[in-house]
Amino acid sequence: MIKKVVIVGGGTAGWMTAAALSRHLPKACQVHLIESDQIATVGVGEATIPAIRTFNAGLGIDEQEFMRETNATFKLGIRFQNWGELGEDYYHAFGFYGFPINDVSFHQYWMKMQQNSGAAPIHEYNMPYMASVFDKFEHKQFDNDSIASRYFYAFQFDAALYAQYLRKWSEAKGVTRIEGKVTEVSQHPDTGFIESVTLESGMRIEGDLFIDCSGFRALLMNQTLGIGYQDWSHWLPVNRAWAVSTAYENKDTPIPPYTRARALTGGWQWRIPLQNRTGDGNVFSEQFISEDQALDQLLENIEGKPMNEPRLLRFTTGKRDKIWHKNCVAIGLSAGFLEPLESTSIALIQGAILLLIRNFPNEDFDSATEHEFNRRMNIKYEESRNFLILHYHLTRRNDTDFWNYCRTMAIPDELKHRMDVFRHRGHTAHKNSDLFIEHNWLQVLFGQGMKPESYDPRVDVVEPQEVERLLSQMNKDVAQAAHAMPSHLETLAQYCAGDLISNRLSK
Ligand SMILES: Cc1cc2nc3c(=O)[nH]c(=O)nc-3n(C[C@H](O)[C@H](O)[C@H](O)COP(=O)(O)OP(=O)(O)OC[C@H]3O[C@@H](n4cnc5c(N)ncnc54)[C@H](O)[C@@H]3O)c2cc1C
């Protein structure tokens, strides 16, 4: 058995890995985590997708405590502005359109109704969409049988506080934290396996399995083992971000249950509401807009006072050729970075950790296991990448060179196939392994204006009057349930927030 795991890096990836290993393999190995106060973490991963709840629940974390400690808010989805066309607005909400009828997806009936007698806009059948529009949120367990509970939620939180929270949690479970900068890595002369890392202080730390959570540097995977990087910037051309924290203007400034992604001229701007501030950033392609112009745009578009100097982050979208090589696994930014539009990074970290635990190696480091891990991680990265490319490619904007490039660029065959399948008859061709499944794809496809040419013929089996009756009922149920929900603020105040939120509610 592996006896000693050494994690290099204490950002979100490092501490999530340490926490999960100490929870799921507590007796199998000792976990050591090395981090350096001299090297800052990226610290801007603030928006998540619902998968994070499975991760936290797996650790046995108390959700209310975690939300209080990280200034977290609930997230029902992402609001996309100006993506399909300037002035357009839609949400990718974490839940379904209506109910299926006779095992055929709701949207197929809706498309037929649209062609014939007409139907309400499709988002009016989607509970988390309507709740987001009204800034509402109710803390409920998912219930597939009730339209009012057929949704998922995620969190928006302070990433630095999340890492600190997991650090406390992991240290209590026996993880050893070592402060220091790794300056040297030793490999076995014959096998090339990593044997130890040495810190600036001279301290040498040996291990059996090394996890590279050193961020964009990829200290072990790239700098030591020489594993290269697949550059995907011809599909995902953004390569810079300015990030800043912003104070709420006053206590009436809304705290919505969603992240906002507003498309600009050479990229897009995020706004992530936390309990005490927002996180804002302009993600852009430096080939189309300069760093100075992007900073001006960011500052023009924020809605309160900046709380710090904006920080510039530079990156190349893509993925490392291998994520597991010899006795080293890269997790986090060292493994790749797609870009933050759909909050996929923390989800990919989580995916890698769970896959590693399921395929945890013996001392012999079986090559089939390594291969299987890499194969499955490739699928996760490529599917997430294709979903992201869809947002850029499926635009009608022609107002800047950036959008002209995105609209006309060549796209991966797999994505082209999915778009063709949808265009033909409204099917999404998703796979069960996807991070994003049918309802996620549908919302972006419909949201950005794609219209299928026909619908699934099984729809015609149900009498049109019956379809009309069922759709009308679903529409009413969604409207009623969304109106009856408490506001996001009320739920936060009651569930997990301190004085900041309670003060907002007291008039
Ligand atoms: C602009 C931007 C926006 C993002 N937004 C989101 C989002 O909304 N949602 C989301 O899920 N993700 C987002 N991400 C991604 C997210 O920030 C990262 O996936 C996450 O923070 C994990 O980073 P990391 O731990 O891999 O690396 P880092 O945070 O960079 O941590 C690296 C660690 O390695 C240590 N280290 C490095 N070199 C050495 C050395 N020589 N010796 C010792 N220690 C060393 C550092 O001290 C640090 O502790 C965003 C990323 C960017 C760039």
Describe the fold and architecture.
- The chain contains 15 helices and 21 strands.
- It is of the alpha+beta class.
- Among the domains are: 4-41 and 159-231 and 317-382, FAD/NAD(P)-binding domain, CATH 3.50.50.60; 95-151 and 412-484, no CATH class.
- The strands form 5 sheets. It has a 7-stranded mixed sheet.
- Strand 4 and strand 5 form a beta hairpin.
- Helix 5 crosses helix 13.
- The radius of gyration is 23 Å and the shape is globular.
- The relative contact order is 0.17.
- The model has no long low-confidence stretch (mean pLDDT 95).
- Bound molecules: flavin-adenine dinucleotide.
- Residues 8-14, 34-36, 39, 41-42, 44-48, 159, 181-182, 213-215, 217, 219, 241, 243, 281, 313, 315, 332-334, 340, 343, 345-346 line the site of flavin-adenine dinucleotide.
Which helices and strands, and how do they pair?
Layout: E1 4-8, H1 12-24, E2 30-35, H2 51-59, H3 63-69, E3 73-75, E4 77-81, E5 89-93, H4 106-115, H5 127-133, E6 154-156, H6 159-172, E7 176-179, E8 182-187, E9 194-199, E10 204-206, E11 209-212, E12 229-231, E13 240-246, E14 259-263, E15 267-273, E16 278-284, H7 291-301, E17 311-314, E18 318-320, E19 324-325, E20 328-330, E21 336-337, H8 345-358, H9 367-393, H10 401-408, H11 413-425, H12 438-447, H13 464-484, H14 488-495, H15 499-505
Parallel strand pairs: 1-2, 1-11, 2-7, 4-14, 11-20
Antiparallel strand pairs: 3-6, 4-5, 8-9, 9-10, 12-18, 13-16, 13-17, 14-15, 15-16, 18-21, 19-20
The protein binds flavin-adenine dinucleotide (FAD).
The site of flavin-adenine dinucleotide has 38 residues, from helix 1, strand 2, strand 13 and helix 8.
